[in-house]
User: Fold these one by one.
Assistant:
Number 1:
Amino acid sequence: MLLPLRVRSSKTIILDIDGTLVDSNDAHAASWVDALRAYGIEVPFERVRPLIGKGGDKVLPEVSGVDPESARGREISARRKAIFREEYLPKLAPFSGARALLERMKRDGFTLVVGTSAEADLVSGLLDVAKVRDLVDETTTSDDAERSKPDPDIVEAAVAEAGAEPRRAWMLGDTPYDIEAAARAGVRCVALRCGGWDDAALAGAIAIYDDPLDLLSRYETSPFAAER
């Protein structure tokens, strides 16, 4: 899904949303548990939660053995999406500092491109929760990639949409899957702990911060400031 084209800079930041800008990782895991239970598959929350950040096409077979391309797999995925949209999305909130951080990045001349494994029809609602829709230049989702994170396809699509070079691009994410996808696309990654992973899991990132507000408060010493 492309938002209106704006003047692009040569500097690009690819933004994950879930767990990075919006406190939604627990909700995604819970919606999977609920949907699977509706089809008679009992999977504990603790089994699903560490997989959030991967695409649903990877989560479903890993926790249930169900082929995501089968009729049953498509039904479960659709149920999961509906549960998330109707029961969890209205209760979500952005992390502190999310909008202010993106405003700062825009002032520094960065092109901001969403690169998420979420489906396009959920991204709109997540951008509204984060209150950053007007700050985003382009949006790439699972619809724009053949393979979901941690495969690099979504990051590569985001770089292409920005008209950027991978070496001039950064990714801001919260999971080891963001870091792996970025690395495989030749993009540097800055990570946030607010998605639920510790520093050991995020070790491949160039820098690690608690949340958007922490990054904003230390922005002048962050890797992004060095790009100005």
Number 2:
Amino acid sequence: MATTKKVALLDVDGTLIDSNEAHALAWVDAFAQHGHEVSFAKVRELIGKGGDKLIPETIHIEKDSPEGRAIAKQRSAIFAKTYLPQLRAFPEARELLRALAAAGLELVIATSAQADELTALLKQAGLDDLIQAAATSSDAKESKPDPDIVIAALRAARCRPAEAVMLGDTPYDVEASIKAGVQVVGLRCGGWKDEDLAGATAIYDDVRDLRRHLAGSPFLV
């Protein structure tokens, strides 16, 4: 059956790349360097949101304050130097993207990551050559779970919400997609339970599982 969908909107961290814990550790390190003791567990549950939400929800200051900007900058530096070189794509992530493209779907990133960090992530994971367009926190006023990034990705793809399916791993991906009117597929590999991903049309273990069941997934039916 030919797909009626035109675009696969793709989250990156925890979805295509096994990086959620690395991001949490980088935030914990950055907070500590600025005198804030924040537990890994507290930060980990917020990964998937952008710094505009994570910073005020952990240490109760705004990201755009002088200290907030300094912490965000420090986190980026720590992540790039300490954690990024260790990261890898989830098994069969590249094969999944190639299968989606072969089915005629445009591949568009919709991530709360910053634009420069996204470029480095995709290159590190060996996926950068497969992506047609991207929307990042740089393209949106508010990060997930607000719908701004998903809407920006739809705009970049020049498609209607009904023509796209979002792939993500967090409740924030699900909420942002639903608010944007986009069907969403959830993955468990980001560390969330099925009840956390309530609202997703379908849930798979990881990209390998989705690839094996792609023919019957929301992307192709």
